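Schema walkthrough. Field components (list of strings):
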Amino acid sequence: MVQARIESVLVRRPTLRTAFPPDFAARLEGRTVTAVARRAKYLLVSVASGDTLVMHLGMSGSVRIEPGADAGDSEADPHDHVVFALSNRRLVIFNDPRRFGLMDVVATVDLGNHPTIGGLGPEPLSAEFDGYALARACAGRKITLKAALMDQRIVAGLGNIYVSEALHVARLSPHRLASTIATPAGLPRASAHRLAAAIKLVLERAIARGASLTYRGSRFQVYDREGARCRRRGCGGIVRRRTQAGRSTFYCRECQR
DNA sequence: ATTGAGACCTGTCGGC
DNA sequence: TGCCGACAGGTCTCAA
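Field assembly_structure (string):
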């Protein structure tokens, strides 16, 4: 998309999780894309006029590319909600069956003030995210480790699957209080360093694998493996499932403390 | 400050 | 085979 001009924007369905801004298409049409980036789970497409297209895939969203000059050229899938026709004769098609996704246009300079994007915590794979940062954010917090890692303000971009996975790699119970990985002064205990490293490892491995959306059948250590044997060498525990805040958490009682 | 429940909406899967 | 309920990767808001 970078360097290409957005020739036209076809909105087939103007409501996902929230309604699109009324001037959505007008603010993008005729603009040249200057940068494509990602922050947490938000996709950011900046255009030369100083606006940024913000997209979120929700739970079931995807983007695909097709050749074509006109938005009407794309194959009609009932869940293709937005089609961007580019000057390089490619169509960028946003598809989201469940419509939990999000589509917005905001002034690029205001991204930092955006209610959710502005408050996002550090990117987990960045150098600024480490045991120190994690301990600082968790110090004194009376929430469980699971809730802490799901909180995008503490660390950005982890979801239900990789929270379970990271806690397993770090051998930490999802039910432990977040405050226990830090000293009262907010300095990291060994567990904080372990957890930060586990988060990075789990994400790097997932990305290297292609982080396929076809998560079923993947080789997760604990996620979606209730009743199965813990994969940790020499552990032999049984993976449990418990609901926390309405979401399934998978963990091994034997090796996660 | 923190938790829990419910809402958004559709598809898929397991059980009967 | 067909129907029906349970459940799903993510936010967001409201009540307690």
